[in-house]
Amino acid sequence: MADLNPMEEFGKECFLYSPEFGYAFLLLPDPTSDPDTVVLDAVLIHPANQGHSAGQQQVSNQSQQRSTQQQGWQDPASQGGASIEQPTMTTVETDSRRRYLYLDRFLSKAGPTTDAEFVPGAETISTLENSRVLVIGAGGLGCEILKDLAMSGFRDIHVIDMDTIDVSNLNRQFLFRKDDVGKSKAEVAANAVMKRCKNVKITPFNGKIQDKDEDFYMQFKIIICGLDSIEARRWINATLVGMVDMDNPESLKPLIDGGTEGFKGQARVILPTLTSCIECQLDMHAPRAAVPLCTLATIPRQPEHCIEWAKIIAWEEHRKETVLDTDDPEHITWLYEKSLNRAKEFNIPGVTYQLTQGVVKNIIPAIASTNAIIAAACCNEAFKIATSCNPYLTNYMMYTGDDGIYTYTFEHEQKPDCPVCGNLAKAITINPNYTLQQFIESLGERPEAQLKKPTLRTESTSLYFQSPPSLEEQTRPNLSKKLKDLVADGEEIGVSDPSFAIDFKFKLGFQS
Fold first, then answer.
1. In 3D, which of 320, 462, 382 has the Cα closest to residue 134?
2. Which residues make Cβ contacts (< 8 Å) with residue 382, sequence separation at least 6?
3. pLDDT tens per residue across span 361-415
4. How distant is the alpha carbon of residue 140 from its chain centre?
5. Cβ–Cβ < 8 Å for 500, 474
6. Which of 14, 143, 294, 389 is the catalytic position?
7. Catalytic: 306?
């Protein structure tokens, strides 16, 4: 490190100037340790970035005058540095800025890849601090994201999650403790981070993202998803695309999405209507292949088959009158015991309570290190978008850590037939002899659709309504009819699903 030359000193406070780095620093007694200990506290002067307002000066004029009268202020030019009229602080209160000294230095100078609009210094630091960010999800990935954002200089963070803390969360969701079991994830996570980062404000919301309107999402500069649900991703993606008003640039909210599955993960940056959206990339998240019922009923080969048998067949036989609640420990215990007995009957090892819970709730195994890596990637993109200090990701990064460490970045192209951000109907090739019921079932299995409760209609007629009951009963006879008797080859149909805020358009093409 360069030699530091004293500029002025009074009491235990000391200004030091570094000719090599072009910065002046303030040494202060550390209130948390020995009274004779001093610490390097905050950036004071950046010769290339002067003219800070009086409100950004941390040392009072009175203290500066007293110091100048006692010893006289030495121009840094005499020490080989740039000439400055008088030392000024660049940021806010010294105690809160101690944690972000490295960020202040980084944001106070331009680099070879900084964006043209990047303004080094206090203006960018203030923009970062005032950027309001929404984090969706406070689970394994969300905990890491909240921590990383707070440590990256963001001070106005909001988090929304509908879940409560379960004992199984404690092995990787590090913001939670045993005493927190049963409490709101969003509230506990927010309080845990604010306890460690006193200058950060995190506002928690306990509820569904679908319960919030567009005005709620309009207040944020950036939205970051740490979700484990494809349906929730698709909903927020469609909502943000629908919010965009070409006459109002503030209506475009960058969406940063992170996801993990075991040792694999991905981070992506989405600019609604301008870049490829989540719906454009839906076929990269194909649904898991269904196990035939005949396998479950007669020749199970894996512990998962025994658990699926207990969930689908045994529950229907023995507890048909009770609705299965996957969050009820008594229900999970019953399924576990049935699965274990089934596994013993066929000499299949590996059925455990945890595996039963994972299969029934479709839980993807999570690994803390993968969560940390993907969360860091997401927050890095948020930092770049908020400050313009470097180009952000364009637009998809995938990570694999099961056999070494491998990452690959590429640009996923926008699809003109995307039902969310495109303007063309998506083409689907189908057997004309399929019944409407078979076609509806195929929409749940197709990677590009994944619709579970679709309502279908053409421009001239209603094919099938899931609700209300009166319309469902009226259109139910169509389920047994063949597609060739209901629609023409090349005809467009509109499809809606209660899980999504948009309608989908498909163009049916009959197989020859």
1. 382
2. 133, 149, 152, 154, 222, 224, 256
3. 776 667 889 999 999 999 999 999 999 888 899 989 999 988 888 999 999 988 8
4. 11
5. no
6. 294
7. no
